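Sequence in, structure out.
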Amino acid sequence: MAAMLQPQIILLKEGTDTSQGKAQLVSNINACTAVADVVRTTLGPRGMDKLIHDDKGNVTISNDGATIMKLLDIFHPAAKILVDIAKSQDSEVGDGTTTVVLLAGEFLKEAKPFVEDGVHPQNLIRSYRTACYLAIEKIKELAVSIEGKSLEEKKSLLAKCAATTLSSKLIGGEKDFFASMVVDAVIAIGNDDRLNMIGIKKVPGGNMRDSFLVNGVAFKKTFSYAGFEQQPKKFLNPKILLLNIELELKSEKENAEIRLSDPSQYQSIVDAEWNIIYDKLDKCVKSGAKVVLSRLAIGDLATQYFADRDIFCAGRVAEEDLQRVAAATGGTVQTSVNNIIDEVLGTCEVFEEKQVGNERFNIFSGCPSGRTATIVLRGGADQFIEEAERSLHDAIMIVRRALKNSTVVAGGGAIDMEISRYLRQHARTIAGKSQLFINSYAKALEVIPRQLCDNAGFDATDVLNKLRQKHALPSGEGASYGVDINTGGIADSFANFVWEPSVVKSNAINAATEAACLILSVDETVKNPKSESAQGEAAASAMAGRGRGRGRGMRRR
């Protein structure tokens, strides 16, 4: 009786929403599956694109998993984890962003019946982690190294990796053209890790085939003053001076005051101003430089002065472009024109200003340091060029990864099927419930070839049965067989050059497993909408109080 009369213990504020237990876990799994369904159709060479337009009216057409996930503005707290793994895959490897979301969604989908049947999530998590470890070891075993090959062989191997990535993008029709361009650009920057050393400039107009690679730096002509037309537009082996100073007459600071006792002294002050600017320009000319670039403005006086002396100048050059010119030409950006020695000047074989579409471009080619490259992209619509840039970013990242971790695996769902077969075989050696969980993990990996077939309009069941039969051959000769997108059958992905760096797959499986385990380990969500709304009201009243003497609700006592 005494137990019945005990008061109820209230831990959380009134109005706090708590959901816990099995229902909460199933709800999180459903949310993640819904997110995976959004990007599901974008996978592979026959994947569809998504058109997303935000509240500002910006329209984005893309089939890049990470871009779509960023733009979706997902509110559900558990589903946000999938956005994070897509972003991490994008920054770490560059490609496989759709794959990682799909795998995580599928792992959770396979776990759902077990959760509903009352299996403890920790048992699932333990088995999934074991399966993940085994899968990554298998990838290392199946990977083929491209080390020790000649430069030409390496180039063609890397171009095949880039072509595999580009085949699923909007510019897939010209994948061979762009793949070789990307490989040349990545090899040009060598071991430099900075991605911004490869510039991508977009010029609307023309067609994709008009895009070109500059083995050096190219940037849009900057704003220029009168006198610019008289400057030479082409130099061979010029010296290049890079500055971070203004070369123009500056107005005095506000409220500056000069007291003169004699009106004739005024002229000497004006002359001093002119002498300072002429002295600066004279030092630039004496340095022997034929091309002068500055991050700050180069005024009309300086432009005319340089034009009279056959020197090309450009002011207000973007910081990124100036740094790339410095890296390519071997020059150093100067913050003063005093004591300009030859060591700080850059050089290149050819500098010229060229018309590209409606724009004029300054192009530095044949640079001695050569640690930079620029891809100039052409195309019809702005959205198309934007998507082409995102596609090339993925391809550049992939080629860089393949150069560093020089091992590749078969694409087209071949590696997924082989790991799936291996895990199924391994599961039979385990006694207990783990056998079922590892089996479900193996089944989840088949989502990649299945989705490739669905997106291309083929019969997924038929193709998967053929693949299972091929991969089950005891000799192991079917290990590299994947989906053949062109015929709707199966084909040796390795022989067809459908390759991807092994780091893409291992990273995707790792990230997807981690995300699935993280979501399975959450058993309660606490949400306090009342305190959130109270904070919102407090902020609103504080803002109102700032406008007037006293905020609403602040009664005088």
